[in-house]
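Lab notes, practical 5.
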Amino acid sequence: MNGSTMNILGINAYHGDSSAVLFQNGTLACGVEEERLNRIKHWAGFPALAIQTVLSAAQLSLAEIDHVAISRDPGAHLFDKVLFTFRNRPGFDAIKARLANYRSVQGLGELLASLDRTGGRIRAKIHNAEHHRAHLASAFFCSPFEEAACLTVDGFGDFLSSMSAVGRGNRLEILDSVTFPHSLGIFYSAVTQFLGFPKYGDEYKVMGLAAYGTPRFLPQMRKMVHSVGGGQFELNLDYFIHSSEGVTMSWSGGEPTLGPLWSAMFIEEFGAPREAGSDLTERDRDLAASLQAMYEEVFFDRVNWLQKKTGLKALALAGGCAMNSVANGKIFQKTDFSDVFIQSAAGDAGTALGAALYVRHQVLENPRDFVMEHSYWGPEFGETEMLAAVREALPGFAGTDDSAALVGSAGGGNGRGLFEVRKYKDPDMLCRDTAAAIADGKIVGWYQGRSEWGPRALGNRSILVDPRRLEMKEVLNSRIKRREPFRPFAPSILEERVGDYFEESYPDPFMIKVYPIRAEKQAEIPAVTHHDGTGRLQTVSKKQNPLYWKLIKAFEERTRVPVVLNTSFNENEPIVNTPQEAVACFLRTRMDWLVMGNWVVTRVDGPGGKRVVP
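Output from the prediction step:
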């Protein structure tokens, strides 16, 4: 079969951030995380809904798939696994959980057959791509580079925590790896747990907290992890229990859980662990800063080794640790790399993409023909679905003409009140009016086009506010997001204006690097300026997202600031997927505007019934 007509389904299953992607005729047709569909954060079971969604987007049945690529290989590094188990004899519960996980991965073929409505007749060949090779493939094979140094760093997967390679054309040449139990991801997760953030995926919170502290505990951190030369690193296993006692894990029934990783040695060094939800202390903030500094010290030792080993100037990076946007923003400053590519789902969700690409190029030897220039690969809903969602929530709205209508809602609590519903025919007017609302201090839910692939809202499933208003940080954290007050927000900026506001002008459409904001601009956009004077930017291209670019341009024309504050459209939940979820989130929080396609819903009654929108 000609590679250009090949259909490849990529799956990440029974691992955090379960997901599915579909490559059709050589390009990415659709990619989505299961959590967006079943509404359970970091879902780690079988991605049944994601598989059905990507097939539906391409109008294919499972019987029409040629290859299925799974981003796990239970047989990989088997000798190392057996030897480790023999030497360390981890707890029975940990072994039992791991064996159950392996059996689930091995049984994916049968589960796939159960999804097929044609009676289980699957002709696809099933491939297992080792976890870190899938990460590397996701980094390099959709990058714009013909040749690059490739690196993955994470907690662990298929018994490794890091792997490096050289990517050339459609091939990956593996250079080295770091074997479990040594892991920068486990080091970061252990300190995150000790700081009272126990949930799977909480590491990004501690990365944000680090900006408020000083790294005075760095000497103690150096006892826990250190570089050993040749790009390798090791943990001092006395500080961790994952190798001696094993770690209890839950990967199959919903949100993943990870048992404690740190040992009593942490208490000897730092005192009692912080209780989840308690007030943060100076010690906690300084521990977070020290953790980030220690991570960067070892991470950049490995990155610099890779650069010198390969002599290359382009880096393709993936793995859960590739979501550490603070470290990513220092790559140009601390290494000799001059180009970096990190795709928008660089964590475990992205291994579904990587597995498909690995099979397409490394296994089947097809030439490369896809570059990921944007993140808008998820599901899309049309005007009919949007209109139905508005009518359901606002039953007094007929929606039969283009005139504005004042209607009451069907919801309770914050959803009660009077709303104006209006349809726009002119996208320029839509953007101008929305930009004016943002400039006037309104909180806008912005729901457009296809959803983003990856954990970031990048202008299609976003909440937008005025970055000039410092108070918006507190308003969003307490009123909309209902989360910790120290959590920062990100700026979306016109791509052509990046150098005017940031000390680094290298574009980043995926909001995955933190750069210093120019000192003279920090007071101009305080709501998106971190405590340490940095910002996690998203560059917005007119080519890749013309409507979002037009909105920010309209905001610039009104305020002379080419930046809006962008955060994900959600409230302590996965980012909204359907129009119904968008309307429900708008109603139960206290957003002022909902812009959904060409439809705009605005709150007319403010506190006390006062009319606030003419």
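Observations recorded by the TA: The chain has a mean pLDDT of 90. The chain has three domains: 3-131, 138-345, 383-609.
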